[in-house]
Q: What sequence folds into this?
């Protein structure tokens, strides 16, 4: 389908025969012919708007701590062990996401009731995130700050368990690349706005953490009203919330869906690589001699550089991500940019050269998000009833390296102090090597033929200006 339908929801469909077939096949097989999957959802303009509005608050609330709050306040609370404490904070957050995201993804797939399948997770997750932010805002010690990080991360897992399924639920395959591009861009803009605001709230701990929670409360409420959620019938076989249903969130045989498995591995390796670039503030203070008085202005500058790089990358990646047959090659291209940026950062001797390197890494990050997202959608196994489950499984590929990476970083920094291995510079060399490997992995991916859709012979698709992010009476977007 090449244009947005005027309907506000997903067309009803009879899912029972497909679920029975999936059950008989072990619920793992990749789609091999178009009839084996449920009909694609009709793209809902209200659904797209709900996704983007929810993304604003989620990005602002959950990116403010790692970008600004945690590095600054951990350094103040634990100046001698700041790298280890920050790595522990990132690791604990990722472990919580790793454990709870699949559980809440499975719960989302099995949720019945008048609120729908996804809305309860969005609302519940928002409330828990806000509780975690409040604890961090009031924390007088590193231990309590880490406790607040864990609470916030459990809330993130609850939210993401439902949020990750919104694009497959609400958007037809021919529009997913574009919507993922808008979603990624919105997320980046929210994070950049949070970083700008946080740099001006460094003397107000509670305000720095609480403002994101308040914004997320408002945006989730708006998104919940906009969303036309699928309501599962009471008594359906798949809405029984037994222990086995929860364990389904973790059950997966990589051999049964090899394309999905290779994409999972690629995301894991790429994410592991760029977790090594999450210590840019300490690179500036320890390697480039930036003082605490200079730090707020340079945080704002780095945020601006990241904004420009990521926006450019997201537009680039979103534009090309609908060229499904070329997605693996695009991932390889992005990995080369990552590697170049990492090596340039490692060799930086001044703020300007380091900022250029950060810009290259930001461009690669922005490009990777929609391209990787479209690649996931193209090889997603299972039926619609399992979307939340498989999206939660792919989310592990992002969460697990975020748990392992910061702990490895702490070890590298500790060894570097003893053996003079290069300190924070070595981290960017490792980033270059690992992200390059992540690009090579996708050479094994084969896009299913039924996933490659070209629209009306490659003609431009015209969409109503009601699609968020476009202006004017009408906008023209190219179709791959």
A:
């Amino acid at each position: 389908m090449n244009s947005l339908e005027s309907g506000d929801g997903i067309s009803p469909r009879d899912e029972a025969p497909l679920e029975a077939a999936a059950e008989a096949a072990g619920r793992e097989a990749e789609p091999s012919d178009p009839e084996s999957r449920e009909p694609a959802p009709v793209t809902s303009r209200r659904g797209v708007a709900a996704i983007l509005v929810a993304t604003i608050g989620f990005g602002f609330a959950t990116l403010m701590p790692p970008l600004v709050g945690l590095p600054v306040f951990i350094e103040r609370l634990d100046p001698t062990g700041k790298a280890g404490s920050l790595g522990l904070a990132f690791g604990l957050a990722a472990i919580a996401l790793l454990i709870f995201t699949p559980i809440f993804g499975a719960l989302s797939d099995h949720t019945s009731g008048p609120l729908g399948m996804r809305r309860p997770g969005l609302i519940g997750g928002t409330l828990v995130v806000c509780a975690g932010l409040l604890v961090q805002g009031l924390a007088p010690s590193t231990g309590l700050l880490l406790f607040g990080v864990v609470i916030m991360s459990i809330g993130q897992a609850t939210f993401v368990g439902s949020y990750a399924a919104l694009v497959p639920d609400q958007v037809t395959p021919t529009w997913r690349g574009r919507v993922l591009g808008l979603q990624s861009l919105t997320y980046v803009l929210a994070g950049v706005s949070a970083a700008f605001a946080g740099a001006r709230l460094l003397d107000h701990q509670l305000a720095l953490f609480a403002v994101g929670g308040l914004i997320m409360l408002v945006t989730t409420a708006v998104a919940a009203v906009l969303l036309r959620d699928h309501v599962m019938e009471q008594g359906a076989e798949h809405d029984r919330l037994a222990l086995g249903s929860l364990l389904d969130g973790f059950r997966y045989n990589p051999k049964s869906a090899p394309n999905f498995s290779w994409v999972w591995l690629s995301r894991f390796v790429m994410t592991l690589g760029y977790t090594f670039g999450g210590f840019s503030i300490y690179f500036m203070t320890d390697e480039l001699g930036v003082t605490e008085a200079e730090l707020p202005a340079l945080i704002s500058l780095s945020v601006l550089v990241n904004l420009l790089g990521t926006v450019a990358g997201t537009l680039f990646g979103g534009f090309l991500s609908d060229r499904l047959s070329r997605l693996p090659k695009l991932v390889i291209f992005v990995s080369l940019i990552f590697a170049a940026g990492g090596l340039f950062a490692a060799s930086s001797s001044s703020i300007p050269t380091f900022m250029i390197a950060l810009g290259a890494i930001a461009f690669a990050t922005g490009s990777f998000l929609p391209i990787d997202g479209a690649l996931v959608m193209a090889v997603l196994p299972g039926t619609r009833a399992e979307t939340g489950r498989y999206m939660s499984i792919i989310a592990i590929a992002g969460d697990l390296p975020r748990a392992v990476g910061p702990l490895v970083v702490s070890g590298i920094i500790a060894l570097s102090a003893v053996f003079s291995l290069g300190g924070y510079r070595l981290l960017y060399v490792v980033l270059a090597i690992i992200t390059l490997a992540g690009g090579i992995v996708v050479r094994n991916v084969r896009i299913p033929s039924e996933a490659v859709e070209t629209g009306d012979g490659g003609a431009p698709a015209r969409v109503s200006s009601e699609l968020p992010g476009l202006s004017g009476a009408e906008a023209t977007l190219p179709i791959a």
Observations:
- The domain at 40-229+243-452 is CATH 1.20.1250.20 (Growth Hormone; Chain: A;).
